[in-house]
Amino acid sequence: MADIEMEKIVALAKHRGFIFPGSEIYGGLANSWDYGPLGTLLKNNLRDAWWKFFVQQRRDMVGLDAAILMNPEVWKASGHVANFNDPLIDCKSCQTRWRADTLLAQQAPEITVAGLSFADLQKLFAGRAFKCPQCGANDFTEVRRFNLLFETSLGVVEGQKQTIFLRGELAQAMFVDFKRVMESMRKQLPFGIAQVGRVFRNEITPGNFIYRTLEFDLMEFEYFIAAENWQEMFDYWLERMQHWAVVEVGLTAARLRVREHQPHELAHYSSRTADIEYETPFGWKELFGLAYRGDFDLKNHAEKSGQDLQVLDPKSGEKYYPHVVEPTFGLTRLVLMTLLDAYHEEEVEGQLRVVLRFKPQLAPYQVAILPLSKKEELMKVALPLADELSRVMSVDYDVTQSIGKRYRRQDEIGTPYCVTIDFATLQDDQATVRERDSMKQERIALSQIASYLHDKLRS
Prior knowledge:
This protein has a seven-stranded mixed β-sheet. The longest helix has 20 residues, at 37-56. The protein contains 15 helices and 23 strands. It is an alpha+beta fold. The mean pLDDT is 92. It is globular.
């Protein structure tokens, strides 16, 4: 992994229509990225695969699509207004802002920064000479708390606007709607509420392409259980998360590891947290997270709202607050890790071949239809075939440049199969099907191509 340069991934993503800098024609906005046509397809395929595996195929899971804007009391009750902070430090010379723990990790790698308190960070900065990466000066402010919630205003009359927040996580709506979901769907514990959506965090120093951004997509569910079952369910979901990453997404198992949080690292709501990390060119980084939140959220929302969020134990007849195990999947980060894992370079006939070896079901296009030329007699065969296949899979139709260059282009965007319509097709009603990874080709009858590809994509 270390030999893959991030610059190659960023350049390919931009050149091939995966991810573009946001607001580019106006000079951009720091760490704002737009998903191009292929990036949108890849992200949606990953999202749909997650939903199918964790929600659609299970009887103990239901879905939710909650509003981004919520009553600000929600975020006070959850602890985010008071506790959702990063350590901020400013360079007095150039006024550039930095995350103190990130700056420390870069310039003093021998120190473990995970879980250091604000006071610990301040002592380290006071006792060492650190340089600002922007201007080189050693003149910093004290470490201060920087709240990650984005603020906005509700109302139109100046002076009468109410401050509200863009959501900093998906979880809170699932807690707030817990009782309503449980009653309307006639669910009994254990069961989960799942959601996919955009969240916003006012990060101090985002970076590393789309790894850490101001807005990003999460896939998450809250799994509600009786307190005595939490360890069993924690281990179960940790295994399921790793299985999905390796078997369903196709990430390389050797590039994944589990890291348990130490007690001083735990969030204010968690008594056990584990990260599933991926080995990136910039180090081992969190991809998914699993937290045991206890009954912290439901109990706090019940207290602050005055609503009864307890459930009745059918055996004892007593009421109690369910406990929660929370698997969280960073969809935006998963797009990056999937690109990193799929990226391969190899020499073919003396030339460099770049290929994205996506799992075929997740590739932006599952098949490309390639008429050998733009002659009308070939188009009359190729276009109806493309229309037929597009009803059941994602199809690219490409008639530009030589067939060799088109193959290379499809390799570079990860298309697992190419179907070439040539002049022999007009005689034998067959087409050449090329497989991406092996580059092997075989002639398949036009009438059998749909079933052939369907079988290949299912295997």
